[in-house]
Amino acid sequence: MTIEYATRYRQASRIPAEPGKPYFIEKGEGDRAHLFGDLVTVYAGGEQTGNAFNFFTVEGPKGDLIPAHLHPDTYEVFYVTHGAVRLFVEDTEGRQQEKLLTPGDFGFVPPNCPHAYRMERHHSQVVGVAAGPGGTFERFFETLGTPTDQLGLPAEPVVPGPDKFATVPQRYDVRFLPDHRWRTG
């Protein structure tokens, strides 16, 4: 049995809004959103951790490169559990690198480092954790995408318009880099 809570973000959430309370979430029963071709599921966020970190999964089909972006105040980790994900990263000196991550592989992205990723195999899944002094950004996924109760991938990709992209830097620690070019691949 999963208990649902109302939060300031959703009418029904499976994540309790009160910090400092233990809880359990069954597989796939976190707060879900469709963004691009992916399903994002948030299991813990700022409300539960005092804005210390968030914990989420992203699963999706083989697809396009997620837009380049950076987080001025946030560390982000990528841990692949299924499939293959190509992570693109640029350090603060402008050196770019890419790495194909397969199950059990880990990628670390410090603040202010442009990055992007691309699912290289169908049914790929990444476990993400983000932490930093600026708070957490997990509600970005449902703000830019579309909240959903579905367990699967979107039937059609959810591609936000430029107006939605423009609101993100003011509300979350995510800055998109529309003119960024990857020289690595």
Automatic annotation (TrEMBL):
Domain (Cupin type-2) ranges: 60-119
InterPro entries in the record: Cupin_2, QDO-like, RmlC-like_jellyroll, RmlC_Cupin_sf
Annotated SUPFAM superfamilies: RmlC-like cupins
The name this protein goes by in its record: Cupin type-2 domain-containing protein
